[in-house]
Specification:
TIM Barrel, binds zinc ion, 7-stranded mixed sheet, 5-stranded parallel sheet, 19 strands, about 525 residues, alpha/beta, Urease, subunit C, domain 1
């Protein structure tokens, strides 16, 4: 039979199974695995592994025009440069976080309006396939039915920040949003650091003259992460809602999730590369600020616990949280522990670093690598088996991985506009040689061979989920009640002191003085 493209000679990796098989691709999908076939085009892939293109469910790309509109510094990759970074590292699908921003009159967009804007902005730029996570900054203020309307329009997830003390203290609003999400078939994503504890720790450091960014890890203690993870688990239990904890960073927080999952609660766990490869000792370096992400880098014991979590199935996904700044912006000397620019570029390095440090070293298996970088995220976000699998009928999203390729990480010559990598100088083994997205060769021997707009938006109507449904009498003791937020948190400075990433309120919230820098 004749196909559009035939990939010859690769070893096809699917969970639990590995075989040398040719891959026949027609109309952007995998049509046949193994057997006799001919193609209009053929790609010789001897010696390469055929793995599913990565599904990175957590990115922060900013479509063109948004930076000018909000008027303060934002992340530097749009959907085109971000797509290039993704593809060059083996990723073919991304999930981007969609922030409401102030509209022309200074009124915060509704999540539906933000999604509408970002759909238009991304469509002409993206070269990876993409989906969007609506961010709910103020769920209590939403129009009735907003979460259901978002899911109905194909955006079956919501994200909320427990870093906002007002929101974290508003349990009814959190529960209502998570309940609405569950009813609509959506997953609830939560940034788990307790805002009141962060603000207190940060203010204390500044008052003690230790406000420099080098002290960032002390401004965001593990205890704040654990408190918020406990709250997230409580939301999963009380709302019966599937909860997805983004960028989990510590052994203690992972342990809370492990216990919740053992009790049958639908708590998904994501971590990101920073916590697998780096520890807080980096903050002793002169350019400490370049490592700032929230939560911060942790201890070696946390790092080891996360690797064990990957191998043991306690962590579902490794996502980049790609939030790129230039080095100059990161090192801005006017920043402090509360205003430090959070996030790093990691789209291009996510899969090679995990392969090199995980599969090559034997910390995780190749099957686990595929599950952590593609299959699990596709399942959780309702895209499986269209994405995350190499199987007949799936989209032909394939990273043809050269397991022996050696390279030294050099952010200055990578695709992100950040211009540096936190792993600069790191020697890695394993990199994609070709990347195919829906049947189109998008990357070949170091060259990007796709164009802006070649990516497709992926509607997600009801998400599937890989964990069991919550049992009403799951044996799980509730977390201790939250202490009330101190009064001063309700006073001015509020937004400035919060880890909003960045504060998108533009000074609109009463008393907010958002961090602006030249
Ligand atoms: Zn993020």
């Amino acid at each position: 039979m004749g196909f559009d493209l035939v990939v010859r000679g690769a070893t096809v990796v699917t969970p639990g199974h590995r075989e040398a098989a040719d891959i026949g691709i027609a109309d952007g999908r995998i049509a046949q695995l193994g057997g006799t076939m001919t193609g209009t085009e053929e790609l010789a892939a001897d010696g390469l592994l055929a793995i599913p293109g990565g599904v990175d469910a957590h990115t922060h790309l900013v479509h063109q025009g948004l930076a000018e509109r909000v008027g303060f510094p934002v992340w530097v990759d749009d959907f085109w440069s971000g797509s290039r970074a993704a593809i060059a590292g083996g990723i073919t699908t991304i999930g981007n976080m969609t922030y409401p921003v102030p509209d022309g009159e200074g009124t915060e967009e509704t999540p539906v309006a933000a999604i509408t804007r970002e759909m238009a902005g991304a469509a002409g730029e993206a070269a990876v396939d993409w989906f969007l996570h609506p961010i709910l900054l103020h769920p209590a203020a939403l129009p009735e039915g907003e979460v259901g309307a978002l899911a109905g329009a194909g955006h079956a997830s919501i994200k909320m920040f427990l870093t906002d003390p007002d929101l974290a203290a508003d349990e009814p609003a959190l529960l209502a949003a998570a309940t609405a999400a569950q009813a609509a078939g959506s997953v609830t994503l939560l940034h788990c650091e307790d805002g009141a504890m962060l603000a207190q720790a940060g203010e204390q450091l500044i008052a003690a003259g230790r406000g420099a960014v080098a002290n960032f890890p002390d401004a965001r203690p593990v205890a704040a992460e654990v408190a918020a993870v406990d709250q997230a688990i409580g939301i999963a239990r009380r709302a019966g809602a599937r909860v997805y904890i983004v960028h989990l960073s510590s052994a203690a927080a992972l342990d809370r999730c492990r216990r919740a999952r053992a009790a049958g609660l639908p708590v998904y766990v994501e971590t990101r590369p920073l916590y697998l490869h780096l520890t807080r000792e980096r903050f002793d370096e002169p350019d400490a600020a370049k490592y700032v992400g929230a939560p911060p880098l942790r201890e070696q014991s946390d790092r080891e616990a996360l690797w064990a979590g990957l191998a043991g199935g306690d962590v579902d996904t490794v996502c980049s949280d790609h939030a790129p700044w230039t080095l100059q912006a990161k090192l801005d000397p006017t920043l402090n522990v509360l205003t430090a620019r959070q996030g790093v570029a990691d789209l291009e390095t996510l899969m090679p670093m995990l392969y090199s440090e995980g599969v090559v070293t034997g910390r995780i298996t190749l099957d686990q690598f595929v599950a952590l970088t593609a299959a699990n995220a596709a399942r959780i976000f309702g895209l499986y088996p269209r994405k995350g699998a190499i199987a007949a009928g799936s989209d032909a999203d394939i990273a043809l991985w050269d397991p022996g390729h050696r390279r030294t990480i050099d952010g200055a010559h990578m695709q992100s506009r950040s211009g540096y990598s936190v792993y600069d100088g790191w020697q890695v083994q394993g990199w994609p040689r070709f990347v195919i997205r829906r049947g189109q060769v998008a990357f070949a021997d170091g060259q990007i061979t796709t164009r802006p707009g070649d990516g497709e938006w992926l509607p997600r109507n009801r998400t599937a989920g890989i964990l069991p449904s919550p049992s009403p009498d799951a044996d799980f003791s509730p977390p201790p009640p939250r202490p009330p937020a101190p009064n001063w948190l309700r006073m001015s400075k509020r937004c400035r002191t919060l880890p909003r990433i960045p504060c998108m309120c533009l000074g609109r919230r009463r008393g907010c003085r958002p961090a602006r820098s030249r």
